[in-house]
Design brief:
The complex is a heterodimer. By secondary structure, chain A is of the alpha+beta class. Helices cover 20% and strands 30% of the residues of chain A. Chain A has a 4-stranded antiparallel sheet, with helices on one face. In chain A, a hairpin with a 2-residue loop joins strand 9 and strand 10. The radius of gyration of chain A is 19 Å and the shape is elongated. Chain B is α+β, with helices and mostly antiparallel strands. Chain B is 13% helix and 30% strand. Chain B is built from 4 helices and 21 strands. Chain B has a 7-stranded antiparallel sheet, with no helix packed on it. Chain B has a 7-stranded mixed β-barrel with strand order 13-20-17-18-15-14-21. A 5-stranded antiparallel sheet of chain B has the order 2-3-10-5-8. In chain B, strand 17 and strand 18 form a beta hairpin. The chains are: A alpha+beta, B alpha+beta. The interface between A and B is large, with 47 and 48 residues.
């Protein structure tokens, strides 16, 4: 069956004189993200584009202002986005062991009215999609998180979150690759390294990959 | 695809390293920087590179290097360096009052150091970041296509860290063009670091500010807070309200002005986080980033709205100034 022709409208906004943001939509949606990744890949092939990075439902394009203009690139993006995206290959599957003993798992369980064991079971249930790699080296935004576990971020972010912490916020999950400040709820930890500074590319996950968590003993 | 893919026909130049400078005192925060690693942002790695690209490029051109060669970025104070052999250097950007063997030297010009000469800095007179280029370019650890130091991951540059006393700086090779001591960039061609008006282009979420908020952004004075480093500057000033629906995270760029819930904007600099979900109300023009790079905590600044076309014109003028150094 042919994929339905897209009715997505692309809106482009300047991000200064050497970058622009092309928005495909405003929803957390796998199809939109697939289109964003395909658009970023198509844009990367252009000589006047230095880098194109897919967001959840957008592409940030860094271009060479000596070779092109915002308007010319915006027109090219509209053309590219109206094409049917190439058949998306399923992303690589990563199986990630998690010890569900994070400092917030009791509080999360209490707030959503479940036991910690149920929180762990629900968190490990879906196959998550890597929507976006970014923020800090190796960080990946994973989703969608089951609705039962949806919580806003912590009011007061932690000043230091240990590397390997498995966290949730909103309809998302993630793993802290480095010790950084963080406002997400820490429900577990993993020994898998997300940031691989001496590999190229230096991160385990790539946009479009799939992630399955499973409970492990410490 | 690996980030370090080389373009077809690109050949590794064989370089012989020459030890040219010894670090007697490192200065407050001196790191090796080049033009960064823009390819690495797809892995969440900050693009990095010199904060003041104009000063970095000019320093290189003054000693006959490629613009992208690595230089030393000196923050707030300069190092004390001793020449291990005859070499040509240039100091650009902030004025930390450079001295050779105690004698005052001009910034923005190439100067010849003989073996044993001491390059020191008497103290900060203007700006926050000075750049030191050495003919041949500085040799350092290359990480993900760039020699820029990334302190967070401890990679690139001088073993991923700031310079320390006792470090030896090597030049990557001979200068490309004939090294001419005394080459200089005229006063009228240098950025005016005393004018803290940052020209900025309206950003994707400008409408969230409304007409009043837009007036506040472009009509008020802001101050660089103490929370200011190579990642970004948290600004103090009138509160901006860019609230609205939660945004899905998207890729960011240097110069982007984020407005978090607190309403105190954050100006993203060279080592910025690569993605985020705060509204971006404006982006500082690329040609205004050198001035932004020279700001320090406590400095006052304003934003002036410009069109993309106007920003491109200022950029072209800067390019022409740099081109005047190419012989």
């Amino acid at each position: 069956m042919p994929a339905p022709r897209s009715t997505t409208r692309v809106r482009t906004h300047p991000l200064g004189d050497a970058a622009l943001l092309a928005e495909l939509g405003t929803r957390l949606d796998t199809a939109l993200n697939t289109r964003a990744i395909a658009l970023a890949n198509a844009l990367k092939k252009r000589r006047d584009v230095r880098q194109a990075v897919a967001g959840y439902a957008s592409v940030t394009v860094h271009f060479d202002p000596d070779q092109t203009t915002h308007d010319a690139l915006a027109a090219a993006i509209k053309r590219l986005a109206s094409k049917r995206p190439p058949m998306a290959e399923p992303g690589r599957l990563h199986r990630i062991p998690v010890v569900y003993d994070g400092p917030d798992i009791e509080a999360v369980a209490a707030r959503v009215g479940l036991s910690p064991a149920q929180v762990a079971e629900i968190h490990a249930r879906p196959i998550y999609r890597v929507f976006l790699v970014g923020f800090v080296p190796g960080w990946a935004y994973l989703g969608p998180l089951p609705e039962e576990l949806e919580l806003p971020r912590r009011h007061v972010p932690r000043t230091q979150v240990p590397a390997g912490s498995v966290a949730i916020a909103g309809r998302q999950s993630g793993i802290y690759p480095l010790p950084t400040p963080g406002g997400w709820h820490l429900i577990g930890r993993t020994s898998v390294k997300l940031f691989l500074p001496d590999a190229d590319p230096p991160c385990l996950f790539r946009a479009g990959d799939r992630v399955k968590f499973f409970a492990a003993r410490s | 695809m690996p980030l370090s893919r080389r373009r077809p026909g690109q050949v590794l130049r064989r370089t012989k390293l020459r030890e040219v400078l010894r670090v007697r005192k490192p200065g407050l925060l001196t790191t090796v920087q080049d033009l960064g690693r823009p390819n690495a942002i797809s892995a969440g790695v900050p693009p990095g590179g010199a904060m003041d690209r104009f000063a970095h490029r000019a320093a290189n051109l003054l000693v006959g290097n490629d613009e992208g060669a690595a230089t030393l970025e000196c923050t707030l104070s300069g190092p004390e360096l001793v020449a291990l052999e005859n070499c040509l250097v240039a100091v650009t950007g902030a004025d930390f009052d450079p001295r050779v063997n105690g004698e005052q030297e001009a910034t923005w010009s190439g100067m010849f150091l003989s073996r044993g000469d001491e390059l020191t800095f008497a103290g900060r007179r203007q700006g926050g970041r000075a750049y030191i280029a050495v003919a041949g370019g500085i040799a350092a650890d290359r990480w993900l296509t760039s020699m820029s130091t990334n302190l967070m991951t401890a990679r690139g540059g001088m073993h991923g860290r700031q310079l320390l006393a006792g470090d030896v700086i090597a030049a990557a090779g001979d200068a490309r063009s004939p090294a001419i001591s005394g080459r200089q960039l005229g006063h009228n061609l240098r950025p005016d670091y005393t004018d803290h008006t940052l020209r900025a282009i309206a950003g994707p979420h400008m409408r969230r500010l409304g007409a009043e908020g837009r007036k506040t952004l472009f009509g008020s004075e802001f101050k660089v807070s103490r929370d200011a480093d190579r990642m970004g500057y948290r600004l103090e000033g009138p509160t901006l309200d860019a609230s609205g629906d939660e945004l899905l995270s998207f890729g960011l760029a240097a110069g982007a002005l984020q407005v978090p819930r607190s309403g105190q904007p954050i100006l993203l600099m060279a080592d910025h986080q690569t993605a985020g979900g705060y509204p971006v109300v404006a982006t500082v023009a690329s040609a205004a980033m050198p001035v932004a790079a020279q700001l320090l905590p406590g400095d006052r600044l304003t934003f002036a709205e410009v069109s993309i076309e106007a920003a491109r014109e200022i950029r072209a003028a800067q390019r022409a100034a740099l081109d005047s150094l190419i012989t």
